[in-house]
Prior knowledge:
Blueprint: E1 3-7, E2 10-12, E3 18-25, E4 33-39, E5 46-53, E6 59-63, E7 71-75, E8 81-86, E9 95-101, E10 106-107, E11 111-115
Parallel strand pairs: 2-11
Antiparallel strand pairs: 1-3, 3-8, 4-5, 4-9, 5-6, 7-8, 9-10, 9-11
Amino acid sequence: QVQLVESGGGLVQPGGSLRLSCAASGGTFSFNDMEWYRQAPGKQRELVASVRFRGGFGDETNYADPVKGRFTISRNNAKNTMWLQMNSLKPDDTAVYYCRAEGGRYWGQGTQVIVSS
């Protein structure tokens, strides 16, 4: 059974950095599409960043406007581990961050990120 496990969340001051990880366990898997979502208190879950396999063109990455230029999504060649490097963090980035794979077939349990002084 596939499980996605996030890690790397925590408390950080504004302007700081965190690196989130998402690893698949329960077997040998390779996902063409993987995403990071987040959900802030009282708000809907929103897409933060995505990485999609485009065959001979490699991976395509996309970012939500609020995080462009600050967050970087990446993954390993096996396409079963993904990271989110978050720099210049703001209080508005406070949320539970979730990884997702294969169009929502698999979700992680989430990791809490708190940006506060």
